[in-house]
Design a protein that fits this description.
Layout lengths: L1 H5 L8 H38 L11 H16 L3 H9 L4 H46 L9 H20 L7 H29 L3 H15 L7 H14 L4 H4 L4 H25 L2 H18 L6 H20 L9 H57 L59 H18 L4 E2 L10 E2 L5
Antiparallel strand pairs: 1-2
Helix pairs in contact: 2-5, 3-5, 4-5, 5-6, 5-7, 5-11, 6-7, 7-11, 8-11, 8-14, 9-11, 12-13, 12-14, 13-14
């Protein structure tokens, strides 16, 4: 004790100093024995606390072995203190050796209390770290509660465990005796363990039927002969979940810790939900029925374009098969087993193939008809070009090889007159064309809607021809420009 050691130099001094030192030592010794007497009463409590820490050591994390060995060693040293030492302490009149033994025993008790405190502190720290991990996991597994065997019970336990742990984490840390600190650490570790157990129960029960769901969703697309319509990451997550469920102990046994198991289930369920949604859409008959009906309508209209027997037969057969398949297509199916899912996928695939065949045949028919029309269009365009070129040749004035039409008119519809000398000529007002002059006879505008007066000129030419045929003579048209004008003769015969 520092107080006793400090009194040593005074023992070599004079009588007065010696008396003072002796009185000081007596006071210190009295305090030591009073504290030792109290330690005697607490040694039993420390032994009980150390014994209780055996169930708390597993919660100390990686320091379990180290802290356990230190606590056992400290407890053994305390147990090795002779029983007479505690009796001498209780009497309060020790000798010098008894005083030394009492001081040693007090130090051993302090060491034991320190070792117990280290265990409780480590267990509390590990429990808090676990709580920080498990509380978010509880949030992630809560959506799985409806898939458990007893949703109300499982959900209630999960909520209670969460609340208990949260309340213990917010309690302020205060100096406590060894027994109280041990009880607080044990309570927190127990609450965290309850939370972990509640999470694991939800995981175990909610994943019990996942293997059947994964197999059924995969079987739909296996029956259809197509790849799974999900991303590569989702396929990997689904495979990892399925492999974990193959373990006899379930996904928890296949994972190194609860957090890893929750991650496997969470990501696997996201992938499974996407796959089941795609499977439900694939088995929905409404889009396929609408597509098939549209193909039937187009094929029915395309039958009018047919010209070849083989195309007609192919289209008729395709229409018949699609019509029958759509009639037998059931409503939206919800396959329960893997075999039912595969059969449903095969049925949808067969109808899809028939509709696709009908669409292909219809396109071939339309393409053939379009090719024929394109050929006729090319011929029509070529004929149009030839006709336009011929019309341009016939409409050129003054060509000697232009045969006159009836009544002396040319094939282009103009007057058959050749004017020699002078500028411009005019026909005789008394000619057999009805004595008309002006725009109608010169190819000008005729009645409304008759550009160039073609119908009027045609009627006049007919009358002139009939008049010439009756007389059998030639009519002369003289130009009004004088002696230089030339005469145009209209033949009376062919």
């Amino acid at each position: 004790m520092p107080q006793v050691e400090a009194a040593g130099p005074a023992l070599t001094a004079g009588p007065a100093e010696l008396l003072d030192a002796a009185q000081g030592v007596e006071g210190v010794v009295s305090q030591v024995f009073a504290a030792a007497h109290g330690l005697q009463r607490t040694v039993g409590g420390l032994r009980a606390a150390a014994s209780d820490l055996r169930d708390l050591l597993p919660h100390a994390g990686g320091r379990q072995a180290e802290l356990g060995a230190a606590m056992r060693e400290a407890l053994q040293r305390v147990d090795a203190v002779p029983a007479g030492t505690w009796a001498v302490m209780a009497q309060g009149q020790p000798s010098a050796p008894e005083l030394e033994a009492a001081l040693t025993a007090a130090d051993l008790v302090t060491d034991l209390e320190t070792a117990i405190g280290r265990v409780t502190d480590a267990a509390s720290e590990v429990a808090r770290q676990r709580a920080d991990v498990l509380l978010p996991l509880a949030e992630q597994v809560r959506p799985l509660v409806p898939d458990t065997e007893l949703p109300d019970v499982r959900g209630g336990r999960l909520r209670t465990a969460e609340r208990t742990v949260s309340d213990l984490l917010v309690e302020p840390a205060q100096p406590q005796a060894a027994a109280e600190a041990t009880e607080v650490a044990r309570h927190l570790a127990g609450a965290v363990s309850d939370l972990q157990e509640a999470i694991e129960i939800v995981l175990t029960e909610a994943t019990a039927g996942l293997r059947d769901r994964v197999a059924a969703a995969r079987a739909v697309f296996a029956g259809m002969g197509t790849d799974l319509p999900i991303t590569a990451e989702q396929r990997a997550a689904l495979t990892l979940l399925d492999d974990s469920l193959l373990n006899e102990g379930g996904v928890l046994a296949a994972s190194p810790e609860t957090g890893a198991a929750v991650a496997v289930v969470r990501l696997g369920l996201i992938a499974l939900t996407a796959l089941e949604t795609a499977a439900s859409d694939a088995l929905d008959p409404v889009p396929l029925t609408d597509r098939g009906q549209a193909a039937l309508d187009l094929a029915t209209a395309a039958r009018k374009l047919l010209g070849q027997v083989d195309q007609r037969n192919a289209l008729r057969l395709a229409i018949r098969t699609v019509w029958s398949a759509l009639g037998n297509l059931a409503q939206r199916e919800q396959p329960g087993t893997e075999a039912e899912a595969r059969e449903s996928g095969q049925r949808i695939s067969a109808v899809t193939a028939r509709v696709t065949r009908l669409e292909t045949v219809t396109r071939q028919v339309i393409a053939a008809a379009t090719a024929q029309v394109d050929g006729l269009r090319s011929e029509a365009e070529a004929a149009h070009l030839v006709a336009r070129a011929a019309r341009g040749q016939l409409q050129q004035p003054g060509r000697p090889d232009r045969p006159p039409g009836p009544g002396g008119r040319t094939a282009a519809g103009g007057d058959a007159q050749l004017v020699a000398g002078g500028r411009g000529g005019s026909s005789d007002s008394g000619a057999a064309g009805g004595g008309r002059s002006g725009p109608a006879r010169r190819g000008g505008a005729g009645p409304a809607g008759d550009p160039g007066g073609r119908r009027s000129r045609g009627r006049r030419a007919g009358r002139r021809e009939r008049g010439l045929a009756g007389t059998g003579s030639c009519r002369h048209r003289r130009g009004r420009d004088g002696p230089g004008s030339a005469a145009v003769h209209r033949p009376t015969g062919g």
